[in-house]
Design a protein that fits this description.
heterodimer; A: alpha+beta; 5 strands; 25% helix; 17% strand; globular; B: 322 residues; mainly alpha; two-stranded parallel sheet; 2 strands
């Protein structure tokens, strides 16, 4: 079983948790969550600093896939699946392959 | 050579790179910083100069109250960074020194960006002109008398920096570590990581609301990418040192407690810029406080969170209350 990354939101009254197979996909998901749910943004470095290493067994039953990440079913509709594709990552940071994406 | 000769440890000490260091989180930040170098002169400021002339005088005053603090703040953090470099040298952390070399360059560049923007857009450069628009935090009064407001940028950072410098010169490694945790908590976690983050969003939200100042927005985006590394460098170092000696966690809380009034009060820009959702930025401050605690591996002080959210605590830091 491969390693997963887990990120959980610490915004007030928010229970969003995402599991992703790699850093790019989970960074894209968290940035989309911050935009859609909180009209805000999360910086890539801060997302990476908060990741927990998990395994498949740690993903709660019932979590559903949106692009390559998994979230609780109630959070799935809030995501823009196109924005979650790792190669579409709306990053505020420089990437060796994508440069500065425009937010 | 078939026979390995003995290594002189004094000569080995001249070399610092190890595979563990290259694989570590701080060296990764150095690499990202090197790949992402940008030049403040590459941002076209001209559209902002035109926008400045079309917004109202009230909007000009509100925006300037924010940007002037950034202009001063970026100069302050550039000036106050040296003790962290000295401490990294003292603790024999070459990866920290390498990363901090990019950190210092970036802070200087941020100061330059704000200088260029104010000179071209507002027509303001000389210190006396800038000072007229600076809201001094010492003038803030909490009407309940419960909180004292201090100036972390211009009073706190120099004081913690001096203590760190003294520890590097005369103290033990543990003294340096304790002073490093206090300094980094004040600089990276509190000032950069909690107090300033809502201000970035306020400027971005204002630019969106007014459909103006694309250069300021672009500059902020570049600056934020740098700041994400700065903040998480400081919190990562605190986490490493706290994991080494858990008693250091208390130092984090001590620093946040000293500046409790600054954290729980409203950021002056929340009211200086008309038309913003004030509550959004208080909730955001809670998120950033919780995030910084998570990154440092410390338990958040729930009383700070309760006070940030307490609607009766509504004095504005930087403006005479009432």
């Amino acid at each position: 079983m491969g390693t997963l990354h887990e990120w959980s939101c610490v915004e007030l009254d928010c229970d969003y948790v995402a599991f992703g197979p790699d850093e790019d996909s989970i960074v894209a998901a968290v940035m989309d969550h911050a935009r859609a749910a909180h009209s805000s943004f999360e910086l890539e470095e801060m997302i990476l600093a908060a990741l927990e290493q998990r395994t498949e067994a740690d993903v709660p039953a019932g979590f559903v896939a949106v692009a390559s990440v998994r979230v609780a079913p109630r959070w799935a509709p809030s995501h823009d699946a196109d924005a979650l594709a790792a190669n579409e990552k709306k990053s505020m940071e420089w990437s060796p392959t994508r440069g500065y994406a425009d937010l | 050579m078939s026979v390995e000769s003995a290594v002189d440890p004094e000569i080995a000490e001249k070399f610092h790179f190890t595979q563990a260091m290259l694989d570590g989180p701080i060296f990764r930040k150095y690499e990202k910083a090197m790949r992402g170098v940008w030049n403040a002169h590459d941002i076209d400021i001209e559209p902002d100069a035109a926008d400045w002339l079309r917004i109202t005088p009230e909007q000009q005053r509100g925006l300037l109250a924010v940007t002037v603090r950034f202009l001063a703040g970026e100069q302050a953090v550039t000036n106050e960074l040296i003790p962290m470099l000295a401490a990294s040298h003292r603790l024999r952390r070459f990866d920290w020194i390498m990363y901090l070399s990019t950190f210092l360059l970036e802070e200087a560049k941020h100061a330059e960006f704000f200088m260029l923007w104010h000179r071209r857009v507002v027509g303001m450069l000389e210190p006396d002109d800038c000072a007229r628009h600076f809201l001094a935090r010492s003038k803030t009064i909490d009407p309940t008398g419960r909180f004292e407001i201090r100036d972390i940028m211009h009073e706190g950072l120099p004081r913690y920096g001096e203590a760190l410098t003294d520890a590097c010169r005369e103290g033990s490694d543990a003294d340096v570590e304790r002073a490093f945790v206090r300094f980094s908590t004040a600089y990276n976690a509190l000032a950069e990581g909690v107090l300033t983050m809502p201000s970035y969003e306020i400027v971005i939200d204002s630019c969106d609301q007014w459909q103006a100042f694309p250069a300021l927005k672009q500059g902020f985006r570049r600056i934020l990418a740098d700041e994400g590394r700065h903040i998480t460098f400081g919190t990562a170092v605190c986490r490493m040192l706290i994991e080494k000696d858990p008693s250091y966690e208390e130092l984090v809380h001590e620093v946040f407690d000293r500046y409790r009034g600054n954290v729980v009060g409203l950021v002056e820009y929340q009211k200086a810029v008309p038309g913003l959702d004030v509550a959004k930025y208080q909730a955001m401050k809670v998120r950033h406080y919780r995030s910084r605690c998570r990154e440092m591996g410390v338990t958040p002080d729930e009383t700070i969170i309760e006070q940030i959210l307490d609607p009766e605590i509504d004095f504005v830091v930087g403006v005479e209350a009432g």
